[in-house]
Design goal:
232 residues, 13 strands, 2 domains, 9-stranded mixed β-sheet, D-amino Acid Aminotransferase, Chain A, domain 1, single chain, D-amino Acid Aminotransferase, Chain A, domain 2, alpha+beta
């Protein structure tokens, strides 16, 4: 079913009651397809939606982004041929817009995205923002998950802080060979970070060059992860 056929009565159109996944396709091969299926199944179940997996079986030919959408009226996909290259690096600052850690919007890839778009608009050109939860803990970036290196330790917010279980985050945790500390940290934690990087299915793993104007010097962790991730 085409995206153009979504009825105006669909709660996904009216209220953002729906979930999505962005799958990167290279040479007709969908990267981490089973992990994306795990993610959209979990998200859909929480929202009381049903994933029709037969509508997600045929992988598009070529290179691009294959976007999946599930709403109350069906499972749909949209093929975006070609991949827009992300910035080589990101500048990062704190957003005044936060997330509520136990909300669906924070934990799952829902079609309700206004708060994240609002937060992203606070960034500089080619920048990103850090969003905190209601307890003042680091949750995520507006459009990505967040990792950093401090005192030689690789860290990331725990799921209960309000971040999403993205496929690239999962790869770093399970397949990168790096020991990662998941926990709860306040924004001051990033002030002493030696390296920060962002992850999502579209950008992969991307380094951050500055935090609130303070330049960061690479420790080599993100660079090594980038090579390993794209080599699989």
């Amino acid at each position: 079913m085409s995206l153009l056929e979504i009825p105006i009565s669909d709660a996904g159109f009216r209220h953002g009651v729906g979930v999505f996944e962005t799958v990167r396709v290279k040479n007709g091969k969908a990267r981490w397809r089973e992990w994306h299926l795990d993610s959209i199944r979990e998200s859909a179940q929480v929202l009381g939606l049903r994933v029709l997996e037969k509508d997600l079986e045929k992988v598009p030919v070529g290179d691009g982004l294959w976007r999946w959408f599930v709403t109350e009226t069906g499972t749909r996909s949209w093929w975006n041929e070609g991949i827009e290259l992300p910035p080589a690096s990101y500048e990062l600052r704190l957003s005044t817009i936060g997330v509520w850690s136990n909300s669906w919007e924070a934990r799952y890839k829902t079609l309700s995205y206004l708060s994240r778009i609002q937060g992203r608009k606070e960034s500089d050109s080619d920048g990103e923002v850090v969003m905190l939860n209601e307890r003042g803990e680091i949750a995520s970036a507006s459009m990505a998950n967040l990792f950093w290196v401090k005192e030689g330790k690789l860290r990331t917010p725990a799921r209960e802080c309000g971040c999403r279980a993205g496929t690239v985050r999962r790869w770093v945790l399970e397949r990168s060979g790096q020991k990662v500390e998941e926990g709860r940290w306040r924004k001051e934690e990033l002030d002493g970070a030696e390296e920060i990087f962002l992850t999502n299915a579209r950008i992969g793993i991307q380094p951050v060059v500055s935090w609130h104007g303070k330049k960061l010097v690479s420790t080599g962790v993100a660079e090594a992860l980038v090579k390993a991730f794209w080599a699989e």
